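seq as requested:
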Amino acid sequence: MTATGSTPDFHRATRDSYDTMAPAYLEFARDELAAKPLERALLSTFAELAAAGGSGLPVADVGCGTGRVTAHLHELGLGLDLFGIDLSPRMVAVAREEHPGLRFEEGSMLDLGLPDASLGGLLAWYSTIHVPDDELPCAFAEFHRALAPGAHVQLGFQAGDEALRLTEAWGMEIALDFHRRQPERIAALLREAGLEVRSVVWRERDTEGPFPERAPQGFVLARRPLAV
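struct tokens:
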């Protein structure tokens, strides 16, 4: 929700589209991480940083979808208190069914509904891609607010300069915008939100294998500065 209590149009479109796609998306993406060693390495680094922080605070997977990445982080065995948040009720239901030992809840990255400085880490793995440009600073400000000092945030997203709209997936009607952004632009917005950028990674798109991509991929790691 926004500060005014209204629901943005992109919220409704994103929620409804993922509600429609949830079962098909579950099967499509089930083995995706197994085919992406760089992504697994970045996720492991994020998890190790969260564990090394030693705060014991929970780590949120924001835009968790079917919970596959939340579960992957759990399976690393680092003892993190993980939970997922997603806009789509049906995605949350699928995540709960697939991973009954983990916690998943409905929510928005624009208003996480969490206390200030209550997170020991935050993952936004291909979830900010659906947030329009004018709402992105609000999301990053919310990340900063919810993170404890010294806690990290890891983003993954498609890299580029133009948005892609999909109106069909697996034979189903949807209305989903994918906002492609250059990693340095994301890094600049995170800095404007008061976060320290620690790593910026760009890779070319995969054109072979079971998960060919339309665009290059970007990954930015940042953290809330330590309290002075």
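The mean pLDDT is 94.
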